[in-house]
Amino acid sequence: QLQLVESGGDLAQPGGSLTLSCALSGFTLDAYTMGWFRQAPGKEREGVSCMGPTDDSGYYIDSVKGRFTIDRDDAKNTVYLRMTDLKPEDTGVYYCAAGPPSFSATDYSLWGQGTQVTVSA
């Protein structure tokens, strides 16, 4: 079966770091663009970063540029979101997804269940 499983969400202090992982099964990472999205309570799901199978580097929304890095390990069928200098506004449920080269959640059809990231002092 096609599955994406996120892990690594936790409580972090402002300025701290977390790394999220997304493990894929049932399909190969190298066939898809991978996206990371987040959703705060009462808000729309927001695209954070994405990276295609032939991209040398990822793409990011302005609010996380210089702080977050998306990494693909095709051999391990895993994608990561390395987050540094965390801010309270980074709080939310983070989802990984597989789909086309897009930042729009509506364009993705394969989703993980999400992992909670809370940034608070």
Set down the secondary structure blueprint:
Layout (H helix, E strand, L loop, with lengths): L2 E5 L3 E2 L5 E8 L7 E7 L6 E6 L7 E2 L7 E6 L4 E6 L8 E8 L10 E2 L3 E5 L2
Parallel strand pairs: 2-11
Antiparallel strand pairs: 1-3, 3-8, 4-5, 4-9, 5-6, 7-8, 9-10, 9-11
Walk me through the structure.
By secondary structure, this protein is mostly beta strands. Helices cover 0% and strands 47% of the residues. Strand 4 and strand 5 (46-51) form a beta hairpin. The model has no long low-confidence stretch (mean pLDDT 95).
> Mean of the pLDDT scores?
95
Query: What global shape is seen?
Result: globular
How far the N terminus sits from the C terminus, by CA atoms, comes to 40 Å
Strand content: over 45%
Largest sheet: 7 strands, mixed
Secondary-structure-derived class: mainly beta
User: Could you give the count of β-strands?
Assistant: 11
Our count of helices gives 0
- Low-confidence parts, pLDDT < 50 over ≥5 residues? none
CA radius of gyration is 13 Å
Order of helices and strands: EEEEEEEEEEE
Helix fraction by DSSP (H/I, runs of at least 4): under 10%
Short structural summary:
With 121 residues, the chain is mainly β.
